[in-house]
Amino acid sequence: MKIPAFLQRFLAGGAVLCLFTAVASAQTIPDSFAGAQVLTGSLAQAVNNNQNATTETGEPSPTGYRTLWYSWTAPASGVATVNLNGSDSFSQVLTVWLGSSLPNISLVVSGGTALTFPVAAGTVYHICTGSYYSGNYGNIEVNLSLNTSSTINTLNVIGGATTTNSVFASRVVVNTEDGSTIGYNGSSVKEALAPNSGTCPLWYVYHAPATGRLSLSLTGSASYTQDLTVWHGSQVQNLIQLIPTSTSGTASLPVVQGNDYVVCVDSYYSGNSGPIVLTFALNPNSDLNGYNLTGGAAFTNDNFSGAATLSGSSPAVVSYSTYATKQALESQTDGNNTLWFSWTAPAAGAAQVLTQGSDSFNNILSVYTGTGINNLTQVTQTNTGTASFTAVAGQTYYISFGSYYSNQSGAVVLSIYGQTGGPVTGPVLTIRNAVGVRFQTVSGRNYRLQQTQDFVHWNSLTNLISGDGSIQEFFVDTQGTPNASFRVSAQ
Asked: pLDDT tens for residues 162-193?
C-alpha cells in the first residue's frame, strides 16, 4: 500500500508506525463475493489494495489470486467497458460473472485488463480482479463506463441478460414479434445428447405469435464465428433441423402462428466463446399472407406414410426439408431430402402445385396417384417449381418435393391452386399480350396450335402435341399478320 504523503514525515517515530499499522488493519477491502463493493451508475471507479486479499473456496480458477469483488447493476442496456487503467504495475486478472452465489456463477467475459461487453438493463454483474501470480499484489483501480449510444440501444432488449440457457431445458422463450436477447456462453458445455455441431451453446425457443417470415440476427455479438441453427422438437435428443446451419450471423425462415421454433447459437470453433446478442424480427406482412394455410406447419412428413394432408381447393402448407431423407422405395427421379404431401381434389379441373415462397434452391416436384410407396403412378414431374395437371374429383394425389442436389435443403412453402369445376375434356386457351398462347392439356389427347386470318383457312403452327396433363405455352410472332386469330385443335 502506498503511504499517504501527510504521514511520510512521521515515519521515523515508532508511535506513528503503530498508528499507521492500526489504519492498515482497519481498512476494509471487498475480499469476498458476498462482501463485494457495490458500483453504481454509468460511470464508476474503485481503488483497493489486494495485498491482504484471499481466494475463496468455490471461486473459479480464471479469477486469479488475492481476488477482489465488485457488483454492478446495469442501469440501462448498452455496451459496458471495464478496465484496470491506473493500477500498480504487476500482472492482473479481470473477469466478469453472472450468478447469485459461489460456486454457482457463470462467465460473462474475460481476458486482459480491459473488457467490453453488451449488457441488459437490470442485470447484476459481478466483477472480479486479482493477481496473475500468487506473489504479486498492489493497488488495483477498477474503471467502469456504460455506453448507451451503441448498437445495443437501438434494439428492443427483452428480459435480463442470462447464462442459464446453456442447456436445452433452460432455453429462453421469446413470444414477441420483435425482440433481442443478451446471453453469455463462456461457461457453456455442450450436452451429450445435443445434436448441434458446435460448442458453447445457448438455447432459445421462438413461439410464433403470428404467421410470417422470421429473421434472426447476431448483430452486436462478440466477434467470432457462430453457428445459427433452427430446430423443432421438445426434447434435445429428438430435435429435427429445419433449415441449414448459418455461419453468416443471419438466417430466416417462414413460421406459422402457434408453432415453436428452437434456435441454437454456438461456437463454430471449439476454443471460442463470448457474448451473444440474438435478435428476432417477424414480418407478418410477408409473402405468406396470400396463402390459405390450411395445412399449417408440417414437421413429420419425411416419409410417404406421414404425408402432410392438405384440404380444400386452394390449400397451402409450410414445411422444412433439412432433416428429411429419401426412402428406399422412392423413385430416384424425385430428388433428395424429400417431403411428402397428400391432397384429395374436391372437384374436377385444372390444378397447379406451386412452391413460391420457398427457399431458393433447385427442386423437383412430383405428383402421383396410388396407395403406397411401392405402387405409385406418376401424373407429372417438373423442376420448374410449378407442376400442372388435370384433377379428377375425389382422387387423392401424393406430392413429393425433393432437392435436385443432395446438399441443398431449406424451408418449403407448398400450395395448390385448384381450378375446380373447369373443363376436363378440352383445352383451356388464353392469349397473353397478343403473342403468347397457353393451354392446358389432358393425358391421352393430341393437340395442334393453328392460325387463321379468314376463319376458313387454318395453318398449323406446331406439330402434333401429345397431351400429358401439363400446361403448354407458345409465343407467336404476329408482326406480319396483325389480324391473325388462333385456336387449339384437339385431335
From this structure: 999 999 999 999 999 999 999 999 999 999 99
H or E element, residue 26? helix 14-26
**Could you tell me the three cell numbers for 150?**
451503441
d(CA 179, CA 160): 12
Q: Which cell numbers hold the place of 139?
A: 493497488
Cα(129)–Cα(138) distance, integer angstroms: 11
C-alpha cell at 107: 462467465
Identity at 400, one-letter amino acid code:
S
d(CA 402, CA 321): 8
What pLDDT score does 419 carry?
A: 63
Is residue 364 within 8 A of residue 381, CB to CB? The reply is yes
Q: Provide CB contacts within 8 A for 184, sequence distance 6+.
A: 98, 106, 107, 108, 109, 117, 161, 162, 163, 274, 275, 276
The string of DSSP letters for 143-176 reads EEEEESSSGGGGS-B-S--BSGGGSGGGPEEE-S
Determine contact, residues 223/174, Cβ cutoff 8 Å.
no
Residue whose C-alpha is closest to residue 129's, from 116, 120, 118, 142: 142
Q: What are phi and psi of 287, to 5 degrees?
A: -70, -5
DSSP state at residue 17: H
Low-confidence ranges of the chain (pLDDT < 50): 1-26, 422-434
Cell of 51: 495485498
Asked if residue 187 lies in contact with residue 107, where contact means CB atoms within 8 angstroms, the answer is yes
Q: What are the start-end ranges of the E strands in 274-410?
A: 275-283, 297-298, 308-310, 316-320, 336-344, 349-354, 363-370, 376-382, 386-391, 396-403
φ/ψ of 217, rounded to 5, equals -145, 145
Looking at the DSSP assignment, which residues form a beta bridge with residue 46? 142
User: Does the model's pTM come out above 0.85?
Assistant: no
Distances (CA, A) of 444 to 108, 429, 470: 70, 18, 12
Q: Sign of the C-alpha dihedral, residues 53, 57, 59, 62?
A: positive
